[in-house]
């Protein structure tokens, strides 16, 4: 597959900028009570640095993070990486995850997610999640294929009441991404 490394979009947030939620009700980055409440900072290249603190509600086994919620954290980080540097929304087509170490409750996963290339509407992204700090051991790795979509994608497929809510209150949504 031929891919290109795109330029960092000129309107991408400056390096060091903390990103706000792309959608107020997003489970990954929004205000959902038991959500992941991820925090993300733009890097100086085509990467984002994110943190996810594993809480009581995120368990799958006693004292350990649920694997599906770890996948959710990577979905969020990778999708936001695609959207942030292309300034276009992108949805998950494919997501592949390697779980290398257990992730305990109360730990913070430090995720660096990178835009690796684009081919038409396909966006290739990857990420490493580390424990005990940004230089700690890798606990989870992920690679994803995201597909850029127009805003109509959400208007067409989303629940009507939620589309109406963001139409009435556009500040709930960061349009780009
Ligand atoms: C800022 C945002 C942060 C978001 C973080 C969270 C992200 C999410 O959770 S998004 C929700 C989960 N994902 C979804 O709901 C997506 C559901 N799927 C779809 O809507 C559609 O299948 C969609 C949009 C991905 C593709 O459909 P469509 O627009 O018709 O495009 P389509 O022509 O099929 O595919 C475009 C290209 O992508 C490729 N592609 C699409 N899906 C896949 C896949 N699963 N595997 C490999 N390639 C794929 C196609 O082969 C095609 O490639 P090419 O251009 O070389 O022919």
Automatic annotation (TrEMBL):
<keyword id="KW-0809">Transit peptide</keyword>
<dbReference type="GO" id="GO:0006631">
    <property type="term" value="P:fatty acid metabolic process"/>
</dbReference>
<dbReference type="GO" id="GO:0016020">
    <property type="term" value="C:membrane"/>
</dbReference>
<dbReference type="InterPro" id="IPR029069">
    <property type="entry name" value="HotDog_dom_sf"/>
</dbReference>
<keyword id="KW-0966">Cell projection</keyword>
<keyword id="KW-0963">Cytoplasm</keyword>
<feature type="domain" description="Thioesterase">
    <location>
        <begin position="63"/>
        <end position="132"/>
    </location>
</feature>
<keyword id="KW-0443">Lipid metabolism</keyword>
<dbReference type="InterPro" id="IPR052365">
    <property type="entry name" value="THEM4/THEM5_acyl-CoA_thioest"/>
</dbReference>
<dbReference type="Pfam" id="PF03061">
    <property type="entry name" value="4HBT"/>
</dbReference>
<comment type="similarity">
    <text>Belongs to the THEM4/THEM5 thioesterase family.</text>
</comment>
<keyword id="KW-0378">Hydrolase</keyword>
<dbReference type="GO" id="GO:0016787">
    <property type="term" value="F:hydrolase activity"/>
</dbReference>
<dbReference type="GO" id="GO:0005737">
    <property type="term" value="C:cytoplasm"/>
</dbReference>
<keyword id="KW-1003">Cell membrane</keyword>
<keyword id="KW-0053">Apoptosis</keyword>
<keyword id="KW-0276">Fatty acid metabolism</keyword>
<keyword id="KW-0472">Membrane</keyword>
<protein>
    <recommendedName>
        <fullName>Acyl-coenzyme A thioesterase THEM4</fullName>
        <ecNumber>3.1.2.2</ecNumber>
    </recommendedName>
</protein>
<dbReference type="InterPro" id="IPR006683">
    <property type="entry name" value="Thioestr_dom"/>
</dbReference>
């Amino acid at each position: 597959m031929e891919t290109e490394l795109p330029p960092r979009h000129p309107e991408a947030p400056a390096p060091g900028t903390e990103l706000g939620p792309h959608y107020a009700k997003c489970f990954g980055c929004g205000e959902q009570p038991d959500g992941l409440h991820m925090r993300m900072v733009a890097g100086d290249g085509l990467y984002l640095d994110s943190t996810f603190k594993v809480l009581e509600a995120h368990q799958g086994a006693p004292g350990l993070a649920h694997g599906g919620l770890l996948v959710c954290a990577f979905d969020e980080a990778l999708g936001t990486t695609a959207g942030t540097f292309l300034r276009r929304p992108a949805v998950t087509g494919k997501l592949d995850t390697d779980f290398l170490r257990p992730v305990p409750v109360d730990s913070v996963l430090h995720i660096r997610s990178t835009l690796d290339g684009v081919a038409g509407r396909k966006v290739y992204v990857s990420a490493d999640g580390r424990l005990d700090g940004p230089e700690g051991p890798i606990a989870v790795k992920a690679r994803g294929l995201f597909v850029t979509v127009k805003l109509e994608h959400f208007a067409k497929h989303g629940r009507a009441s939620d589309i109406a809510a963001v139409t009435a209150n556009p500040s709930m949504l960061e349009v780009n991404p």
